[in-house]
Amino acid sequence: MAPSIQLHRFLALQDKERTHIFTFLVENPQEISSFDVRSREFQFAGHRWYVYTGKPNNEYFSFYLRIVNLGKDVRVHTVYSFNVVNLVNYQNNYTYHSPPTGRVFSRDDDALSWGWKEFIRRETLLKPNGGFFFDGNKVLVELECKAYKTVFEENVELPKVGQENPYPMVHTSPFSVGGFAWQIRIFPDGPDVENRGNVALFLHCTTSNHLAKIKARFLIEGQPSPTVYEHTFPPNSISEMPSGVAFPNKGEFMKSLKENQLRVGVEFMSVTEVNEVHVTLSEPNSCPTVCVTPFEDLSGCPWVLKTLQAVKLKLKMDQNEKTTSGLMEFYHRHVMWNATLVSPGTEDVSLNVALNTKGPLVGYFGENWSDADVIKSDLAVEDLALTDNPYRTDVDDGYDRYSYVSIHVEIVSNHLLYKTPTPSPTGDRERKLLYSARKDRTQVHARYQELLRQKALLASKCQNLTRERTRLIGDEKNDVISQIVPDFSKFLSDVMLDLSQRAASKGRLQARETRVGRPYKATPQLDEKERQKKLADYRENFSLLLSDARPNLSELAVVQQYMGEFKEILTRFIEAKAAIHVSGVITSGSLGTNTTCSNRWDVDFVLLSSDLPRIGHVMWMPSFVVALAKMLEEGAIEGKLPDCSNFTYTNYSVQFKHKDVEVDILPAYDWQHEGGFDALYEELLRQRTSENLTWFCPAAAQRQKLFIEEQPDQVKDLIMVIKFWRNAADWNERKWRPTSYLLALLLIRAYENACHVVEGSLPSNKTVMKSFVKLILSTGNPRPAPMRIAWSRFYDPKDYNIEYSGSMSGECPPIVQDPANPANNVAEMPVSWLPFRRMLEAWAHDLGLMESPSLTCDNHDDGSTPAIVLCNECGNLCSECDRYLHLHKRTLFHQRQVFKEEEEAIRVNLHEGCGRIKLFWFMALADANTLKAIVEFKSRAPGGQRKHVTTGTGVCRFCGRSSDDGQLAVGNVCSDPACQQHAARACTRTHQCGHLCGGVKDEESCLPCLQPSCNPALNQDADDMCMVCFTDALAAAPAVQLDCGHIFHYSCCEMQLQKQWAGPRITFSFMHCSICKCEIKHPSLDCYLAPLRDLVREVERKALQRLEYEGLNECESITAIGGRFFNDRVGFALSKYAYYMCCKCKKAYYGGEVRCDAEAGGADIFDPQELICGACSDISCAQICPKHGTDFLEYKCRYCCSVAVYFCFGTTHFCQPCHDDFQRITALPKSDLPHCPAGHKTRQLEGEECPLHVVHPPTGEEFALGCGVCRNAHTF
């Protein structure tokens, strides 16, 4: 389908910058080829606009904003941005902003459009799982415009003042803003006697029948800008003189004018349309229950204002029956409006009453439906009945006597929106969060300025405190003051010093690389004999491991007591030395969650304070931590923090030791002062990068602690065991060491998995540990997407999408979503999970939690690739290493043997409906749908014994034939003509894994490697048969991967598209994937697909045209919800009408209904030369349609009352059934033929009405039906 851009949603924010947000739905962006795709025009800032896009090159899409019909000397200023919405994660949106001062749209400078040529990469936008492309063909693009204004300026030559013309007037050129025509009128000597001696300016509105409400100010070059004023213009009127637009016509300013020319102008902030509606009072003292008053807006769209009466006056704007006439399907109007009760008898606007005080109301109006807000005013109906009411007008024209009240209906906006038939792509919650984020975006600058102001104020206060402290200390009578007054200046100077050093560095991350925290110290290892004895005891009695992991209870109580006392000392010291108030301290870590193991004591103190900034951590937190670490270290030296040593810090924590306990201090903002955790979670959605999100982790410490504490005692004991193992292992570096919190969460999930296995009872400790080991080792299995682990204790994980942001190559670690912090992926530490899995697997084997490890390839460094071949020289090898290591002539004759376990192993797979059984020497494939199969035997020694590989024979990459040919020894192609033909078409590039590409030449991106060992995530691999030919495996010929992801032989796809449909009737199933039935798409097949797509469009156009002329556009099959063809007119038309290909003009022509073709049996054997359309038949006796020509010319079947499909012998037209029986039918005498109505195969029908609804000659004679579209034919 053709690409399009439709305005899908509109939102006007009630903020200072008057932000307007337009959401556009871009359909079929993959079909965009040039700058020819534009939206419908929409209204904004009093002008008409449209957005357009294109593909300037093969890599990027572009987006532009353009203004329509802008007048001369008119300039429009606006600040705007384009935003391509990522529906998976809004933090990945692509957004480009105009300069902060905005752009100027003007005709004079040829600046009617602004935008970005290289906005977003094509591959990023169209990536199936990228989040931008949804529903297969749609993209959401948002346009945000704000701070807009329209400026008109022109030089005017002032006329001379004389007795003949005492009050001369000159005006500017007319210009248009907001759909109204304007002029500025200038009086050089005032408009009247009272204003003589002044230059006066007036704004003139020349549009009749409508009122205009503006917010504007005059511009006079060389004069101060007058104040902004608001005014409502009656039709064809001149404004009253506002203050500041008159100035003396004598003075230095007037003398400075060159050639007596004055540059004047007007700046419009807003222009809205106002319609005055008279609501008639049916009786002198009451309002009718419902009064319907019609009116028409400036665009000619008719509306009605419904006045509803109860005790209070209620108003509702509704559509007139003509409002939505002519609307195309899926379109509706979005209108924002205000209403004001006015007093027509006075010019005092202060008497006007705004009937809605909460901003403009919104109404949606579609075909035969409306959804509009109702104004519920506080105005009592009975007050309108008073005779002296200033809002009531009495009319007595001699014929009729009535009363009415005047209401000004202000049309703020009127947009035509496109509503997709499917549900909105963004839910209410996500949309509200997105709009809320946009509102907050406008406040970020104000928050930043407020932080700077608070910083300056704090610095000023500290200076005052320092001076006062110095003065008090200098007083001999106040010696004790030096011990009471806190000294904040040292702490603040350290903060400012580190800030300046970081600001002077080239990158903010420079300091982060050096702040690695406490150095890693390996735990002393036991003697090997002692270690083996311990492991043997643990294998025999697992409870001994639990006992060794648990801390001594009496010692634990002592540690908890003195750490509690130390927390109080630490809190008082920080409050006394730092310029913050600590509102709370959360004790977490192992001591805080009661999961301390015997070989390490640690605790985390999270300092909560509302004095800290809530956002922008990267700017202030590292410097704050540095100053805090220096302050604590000085306190330890002075003895105020006893028994503290080994101070260090990271970007977000201070680390030291208190006695034997490792302590971490983590400052965090106290979100209880901002709305609690809900406010924290909303802020997390606004942060864009994982680097920003890590700063918020300590703020959720309370819920992290609660989540661990809620776990059963068995889980806490096993957490101690895992920490006990982790602390005793040698990790070489801290970055390979998993965190305590990660281990705890993984063990909790393992416990949950074990509980599902043993339903009805609690799992044993060993069962949980086996589940834990299985969970960790499964993370090493290759998978297309990472494993996701999450809990719904405090939030719904579906509302928060997080991704792994690390840089590990070749790994796909899990995503462990913090149950307390939805934006935190706990699994990002350690840096690599490979050492974690290796060491855990070895420990599990030592404890007997796993079976003996299988043999792995000695040539791989990962320690996990299984070996299948034993070489006497090279050792254990996998299949790929065996192949490559034995290509060289020096290694060709190594003695190798396949492992017995590998040879006898049976592997069963189900790939895309194709079942497969594989042994080392045998493979069988079968497809249940086609009942076709392939059986392949690999070479074995005589007698069925396993064969030793003793020679370096080569194998053809296509047919698999073995030979001692030198070319084959390096993996080339044999001399078979078919293989050589494949080689001429095949890609010659090599994948990183070392395998040759199995695709075709000149592809932009190669076909993925089809070897199962390289890409096990593929649903099809090299051993699967091609599901088109069902003859050879995919590796037997060059293959292509279609856009749907399925892989077939290129030659099979080529042959399928060349053969086209089977039978005479045109069908398009051959253009669909054989597996998923999606449309075939691949660049190398475009030469075949392009003409076929043209044919599809031609058949669809003709079928829809016939459907419309037959009045079936809204038939039950299309409108019935849940039906096969619900809202699918094209599918219904193609299933109803049969079309055939004319052998002469090669165009599709109508040949009756599909059911007629089905009744005839389809006729697989036919002569294509007999398929001739009406236009290519003998048209000498046919009436040519003046509108459609011969495109839809149809003939009647000579032997029945049906539309003809075949034209045979150069003289005779047949329908499908009669053509199948033509030998019998043509031999019948004319007297034996049935009369009208006649059925297929000379069958006489009952009744008198012809199925074709036309009068025609007797059966047996040729007859041209004429234009099939205009005739409105109805076949049976």
UniProtKB/TrEMBL annotation:
InterPro entries: 2-5-oligoAdlate_synth_1_dom2/C (IPR018952), MATH/TRAF_dom (IPR002083), NT_sf (IPR043519), TRAF-like (IPR008974), Znf_RING (IPR001841), Znf_RING/FYVE/PHD (IPR013083)
SMART domains noted in UniProt: RING (SM00184)
Residue ranges of domain MATH in the record: 19-145
Localisation: Cytoplasm
UniProt keyword list: Cytoplasm, Metal-binding, Zinc, Zinc-finger
Main location: cytoplasm
Transmembrane portions of the chain: none
Domain RING-type span(s) in chain numbering: 1026-1077
Pfam families (UniProt xref): MATH_2, OAS1_C
SUPFAM superfamilies: Nucleotidyltransferase, PAP/OAS1 substrate-binding domain, TRAF domain-like
Record-linked Gene3D superfamilies: 2'-5'-oligoadenylate synthetase 1, domain 2, Apoptosis, Tumor Necrosis Factor Receptor Associated Protein 2, Chain A, Beta Polymerase, domain 2, Zinc/RING finger domain, C3HC4 (zinc finger)
Stored PANTHER family: E3 UBIQUITIN-PROTEIN LIGASE MYCBP2 (PTHR45943:SF1)
Protein name: Uncharacterized protein
Classification lineage: Eukaryota, Metazoa, Chordata, Tunicata, Ascidiacea
